[in-house]
């Protein structure tokens, strides 16, 4: 099982490193957000640490963060930003994230 976690972390880290090289200039800081059920509910620390080590590069300073809200929240907020043609206020963002999290947790419990 540990070998699988290392293999998956290595593969994901390599993919992220290639994307970073294509999208960011040398020296530009990069934040890598780990989202989805694999990272939010069941990620083993070995998986995440392997991913961090493989992504690590001298080309760009890297910060790896684990999302605490469902990725769908980002989709809802982006849709609101585009619909209203402005950034959603932080208070509204927190309310939507909390409400959506509760709805999803209630759904999983039923």
Outline the secondary-structure elements:
Elements: H1 2-23, E1 30-34, H2 37-40, H3 45-55, E2 62-66, H4 71-84, H5 90-109
Parallel strand pairs: 1-2
Task: Please tell me how large the radius of gyration is.
Answer: 17 Å
The biggest beta sheet, please?
A: 2 strands, parallel
Tell me the helix content. Answer: 55-70%
Shape: flat
- Report the count of strand segments: 2
Question: Outline of this structure?
Answer:
With 110 residues, the chain is mainly alpha-helical.
What are the defining features of this structure?
single chain, 110 residues, mainly alpha, 9% strand, flat
Report on this model:
The protein has 110 residues and is mainly α. It is built from 5 helices and 2 strands, in the order H-E-H-H-E-H-H. It has helices at residues 2-23, 37-40, 45-55, 71-84, 90-109; strands spanning 30-34, 62-66. The chain has a two-stranded parallel sheet with strand order 1-2. Helix 1 runs parallel beside helix 3 (45-55) and helix 4 (71-84) packs across helix 5. The model has no long low-confidence stretch (mean pLDDT 84).
């Amino acid at each position: 099982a540990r070998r699988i976690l290392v293999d998956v972390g290595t593969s994901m880290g390599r993919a992220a490193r290639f994307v970073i090289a294509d999208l960011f200039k040398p020296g530009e800081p990069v934040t890598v957000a780990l989202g989805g059920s694999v990272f939010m509910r069941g990620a083993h620390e070995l998986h995440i640490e392997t991913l961090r080590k493989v992504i690590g590069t001298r080309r760009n300073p890297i910060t790896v963060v684990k999302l605490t809200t469902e990725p769908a929240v980002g989709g809802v907020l982006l849709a609101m930003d585009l619909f209203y043609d402005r950034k959603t206020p932080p208070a509204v963002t927190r309310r939507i994230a909390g409400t959506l999290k509760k709805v999803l947790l209630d759904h999983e419990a039923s």
